[in-house]
Amino acid sequence: MSFNTSDDDSQQRFALGFLFALIALVVSTVVGVTVYKQRAVARAPVVEPAAVVVAPAGTLDVTDNDVARVVVDGGVVRFYFATGRADLAQDAQPALADIARAVAEGRSVIVSGFHDATGDAEVNAQLAKDRAINVREALKSAGVPEDKIELRKPEVTQAGGPNAEARRVEVTLAPM
């Protein structure tokens, strides 16, 4: 019985070369996808033009219970509401337009409503929901497709802090 060690060595080298090439392909694909995702996140629009976007003249005192205003803070847009009301601030359009631009570039938004601790808990929960729905409708009017807006009830709708700060709807850009 004769063995051809030359053919066996050649086949082993071919198999090892193929295996190394396959591993290199997998590693380069993983690295490429990771770099691509990091660059996409770095280029993603951030909605934070200023600390305070809009507020009716002379109404920036957060202790005032009847203030409707919009604040952008760290990429989260907060729509604040007057006591017992679900009306958006009169000058909310710039913030809505910023959100619409971010959605047009491929993002989606999460809308969550909160309320203060005063009054009936059921009424407050419904008011938080109504406020979130009003923000959703304003976003749709600003050109945001409904399928890009997610209404998400927070685990705790009663927000802490001053009552004027608690009566809000937060709009957050969802990760891509």
List the helices and strands and how they pair.
Layout: H1 5-43, E1 52-54, E2 69-73, E3 76-80, H2 93-104, E4 109-113, H3 121-141, E5 149-151, H4 163-166, E6 168-173
Parallel strand pairs: 4-5
Antiparallel strand pairs: 1-2, 2-3, 3-6, 4-6
What do you see in this structure?
The chain has 4 helices and 6 strands. The protein is elongated, with a radius of gyration of 27 Å. The model is unreliable at 41-64 (pLDDT under 50). 43% of the residues lie in helices and 15% in strands. It has 2 domains: 1-43; 52-173, 2-Layer Sandwich (60s Ribosomal Protein L30, Chain: A). It is α+β, with helices and mostly antiparallel strands and 176 residues long. The protein has helices at 5-43, 93-104, 121-141, 163-166, and strands at 52-54, 69-73, 76-80, 109-113, 149-151, 168-173. The N and C termini lie far apart (64 Å). 27% of the residues are buried. It has a 6-stranded mixed sheet with strand order 1-2-3-6-4-5.
